[in-house]
Amino acid sequence: MSLDQLDAKPLGPAMAEAHRQLEICNACRYCEGFCSVFPAMMRQKTFAEGDLNHMANLCHNCRGCYYSCQYTPPHEFELNLPAILAEVRQESWESYIRPHALSKAFHEHGFAMALAAAIFIGILFWVASTAGADPSAGFYAHLAHNLMVAIFAPAFLAPLAIIALGLRDYWRDTGGRWPSIADLKSAFGSVAKMKNLSGGHGEGCNFEREDRYTNARRYAHQAVLWGFLLCFLSTSSATLMHYFMNWPAPYGLLTPPKLFGLSGGVLLTLGAIEMIRLKLKADPELSAKRVWRGEFAFTALLGLTALSGLLLYIATGTAAVRPLLAFHLGCVLTLFLMMPYTKMVHGFFRLSALIIEAQKSGGK
């Protein structure tokens, strides 16, 4: 036995079970043409903890491998790769993101935490908007622009810094190196097309229809991804117009902030609703069951944030603007502050895993 093996810490229960199942999969290789997990698995015969974390974050839980496998229960091997990789994936986020206890708390009490935070922060915004009302300030009559910047800038940047520290450790443990343009192109291309939600064959995955393929989950994810990016573009364009063009809000319908914001809000709302519908249909035994409530709560918070923004636009010029603005900003701030501890963090880790996989596979 080598010194490295003597010094290696024993794998935890989830890691050990993932190691067992992946060794069986690696011997069988029936699912060779499936998602990115399988090429990564087939490069080696045994797996360290970093390898297991890497493959778990490559897994998109499409479940095609489970429904194709001959070794699932009641077979004595009892393979359930989607579930065990989901558990390892969740444990990886909880171990890399600090403080660790907040991720576990959210996934156990997500609904209560998200709703309480959104309402509490919304009430604070309501009080601030009432106390500082200035009818001559246009859109910012309800809440001063400088106050919004002072609140939201650190609330957005601080969680990103926490995620960046976690990604640094993940990158080191999984053998990542400085990415090339080709690595980034491969990873971002995969994300843009949701390639791994097609099960590797383009027909879709089996998330909600067992042995029948469907692209419904792939399209829902694309709606959420592009909706979120469009909303971000809306905020970014409004910031540029405010500071560099001396053009403060409100903006007309045919301006970039409104065009990006409305289209993004619609996509994000519809995508979140569809993801909730699919999750309610999916077999919970093929996921990390302990975090089901937290994942559901995060998707609901995402959809509620987008929906409240759309309602705010519809209510323009009415008395409903002030309470809707307070609630919307409460949802947005809650989403930002909880970003490292909700499933939103999976986007950062999955993109990192795809970049690292592009490096290890030579871009294939």
Write up this protein.
This is Tricarballylate utilization protein B. The chain crosses the membrane at residues 110-127, 147-167, 223-245, 257-276, 296-315, 321-341. Keywords: Membrane, Transmembrane, Transmembrane helix. Helix content is 66%, strand content 0%. With 364 residues, it is an all-alpha fold. The protein has 2 domains: 10-94, no CATH class; 100-361, no CATH class. The protein starts with a helix and ends with a helix.
> How many structural domains does the protein architecture include?
2
- What distance separates the N and C termini? 35 Å
Helical coverage, percent range: 55-70%
Radius of gyration: 22 Å
Number of extended strands? 0
Order of helices and strands: HHHHHHHHHHHHHH
User: Treating each run of at least 4 consecutive H or I residues as one helix, how many helices?
Assistant: 14
Strand residue content: under 5%
Structural class: mainly alpha
Low-confidence stretches: 1-7
Q: What about the largest sheet? A: none
Structural topology:
Layout lengths: L2 H5 L5 H16 L8 H5 L7 H10 L5 H5 L12 H16 L3 H32 L13 H29 L7 H13 L22 H29 L11 H26 L10 H23 L6 H17 L8 H16 L3
Helix pairs in contact: 2-6, 4-6, 4-14, 6-7, 6-8, 7-12, 7-13, 8-14, 9-14, 10-11, 11-12, 12-13
Quick overview:
With 364 residues, this protein is an all-alpha fold.
